[in-house]
Write a structure and sequence with these properties.
This protein has about 230 residues and is mainly α. It has one domain. Helices cover about 85% and strands about 0% of the residues. It contains eight helices and no strands. The structure holds protoporphyrin IX containing FE.
């Protein structure tokens, strides 16, 4: 009896540890999302697209915006910002296993905004900085993003909660692609001596890097949980 009680308390404590770790990761992800949302909103909707480094570099390299390009870019960026925000909200509500109807509403908004942003991203891809290799990279990124979000959505509809969570985390990791794209571009511009080359390489690297981090976190948490279970039994 006493032993059973001790085992139960130990198990509760270990579960609490694992929940604390999940919460820490969730908070770090949310803080990064908020910072990136603020950065992008300021750049594109306060300063204006023409004052961004991206646009100045694009014009310097001979790009002439086609009719409606700025509007399509604004739709793409605005929808992506809402996807980052609603993804963070969905993630937090899911982690705290609370407010399921809000989680569902935020999740649906996330899916819709990913589809809108991805659709607007398609025509933009054909005039991407870096030419054909960058265009191909953006098209692959678009497919990966849409496939991941569709998988998470279908699993949610099937009430397959465990797999839904895993695919939702993967899809949200790819939603940070633009942030990683900027970081990798900044890191590679010096060594490659060309912003265009760095940007093109970054288009291909941004989402695999994010998916690797997501996989490492998912596996880390899963391993920790199974190690805790073994310790308790
Ligand atoms: C994950 C799938 C995504 C795809 C396929 C995609 C596609 C594109 C394309 C093709 C461009 C034009 C690039 C060029 O002309 O060189 C672009 C620009 C841009 N996208 Fe996305 N995008 C994605 C996600 C996001 C997300 C999640 C954000 C979040 C804020 C975002 C924000 C931007 C911004 C701000 C620009 C302007 C260039 C810059 O400052 O990076 N994109 N995107």
């Amino acid at each position: 009896m006493v032993k059973d009680h001790l085992v139960m308390s130990l198990s509760d404590a270990k579960n609490q540890d694992s929940r604390n770790l999940n919460n820490w990761i969730a908070w770090i992800v949310v803080i990064i999302a908020v910072l990136w949302i603020l950065h992008t909103t300021t750049q594109y909707f306060v300063m204006g697209v023409d004052r961004t480094i991206f646009m100045r570099h694009k014009i310097q390299t001979g790009f002439v915006p086609w009719d409606g390009w700025r509007l399509v870019l604004s739709i793409h960026v605005a929808a992506a910002i809402v996807a980052l925000a609603t993804g963070a909200i969905t993630f937090m509500l899911g982690i705290f296993k609370d407010h399921w109807s809000l989680h569902r509403l935020a999740g649906r908004t996330y899916v819709i905004t990913v589809v809108v942003s991805g659709t607007a991203g398609l025509p933009l891809a054909f005039t991407a900085t870096g030419g054909a290799p960058a265009t191909a990279g953006f098209l692959v990124l678009n497919c990966v993003w849409l496939i991941l979000v569709a998988s998470a959505f279908v699993l949610a509809r099937k009430r397959d909660v465990l797999r839904h969570r895993v695919w939702a985390v993967r899809s949200y990791a790819v939603t940070f692609a633009n942030m990683t794209l900027h970081l990798v571009t900044a890191l590679l511009t010096g060594p490659l001596d060309s912003r265009t080359a760095a940007y093109t390489v970054a288009v291909w690297l941004c989402w695999p890097l994010n998916l690797c981090i997501a996989e490492a976190l998912l596996r880390g948490i899963a391993n920790l949980k199974s190690a805790m279970k073994k310790n308790v039994t």
